[in-house]
């Protein structure tokens, strides 16, 4: 199995948190391994947070870096669905679906 870099999403990913999370994502990209996103604890995400995750996923595709969601939350799925970003984010089926 290929090596991966685990990334823990914060419980709130909003405009106030995106700068710090962006730095974490950049460090993960520098590792050059698959990204393993953990978002089970994500309770609140705004448009800025969704835009950052979408940009991350699109950048990963362009760099041929796999993105895997180890865990997701209902809040992430709901927000992504509202903005039609579930496919861009490569989200798995929602929990408890």
**Strand element count:** 5
Largest sheet: 3 strands, parallel
CATH topology, by name, is Transcription Regulator spoIIAA
Number of discrete domains:
1
Strand coverage percent = 15-25%
CATH homologous superfamily caption = STAS domain
Q: In which range does the helix fraction lie? A: 40-55%
Stretches where pLDDT is under 50 for at least 5 consecutive residues are none
Strand order of the largest sheet: 1-3-5
Distance between the termini: 28 Å
Radius of gyration, Cα only, in angstroms?
12 Å
What is the C-level CATH assignment? Alpha Beta
Commentary on this structure:
This protein is α/β, with parallel strands linked by helices and 97 residues long. The protein has one domain: 2-Layer Sandwich (Transcription Regulator spoIIAA). The chain has helices at residues 18-31, 47-62, 74-82; strands spanning 4-8, 12-13, 34-38, 44-45, 67-71. The strands form two sheets. It has a three-stranded parallel sheet with strand order 1-3-5. A two-stranded parallel sheet has the order 2-4. The longest helix is centred in the middle third of the chain and has 16 residues, at 47-62. The chain is globular and about 30 Å long. The termini are far apart. The model has no long low-confidence stretch (mean pLDDT 93).
């Amino acid at each position: 199995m290929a090596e991966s870099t685990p990334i823990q999403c914060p419980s709130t990913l909003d405009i106030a948190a995106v700068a710090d999370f962006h730095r974490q994502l950049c460090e993960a990209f520098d590792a050059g391994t698959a990204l393993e996103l953990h978002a089970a604890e994500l309770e609140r995400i705004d448009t800025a947070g969704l835009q950052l995750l979408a940009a991350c996923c699109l950048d990963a595709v362009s760099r041929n870096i796999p993105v895997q969601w180890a865990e997701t939350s209902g809040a992430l799925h709901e927000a992504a669905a509202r903005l039609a970003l579930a496919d861009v984010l490569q989200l798995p089926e929602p929990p408890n679906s």
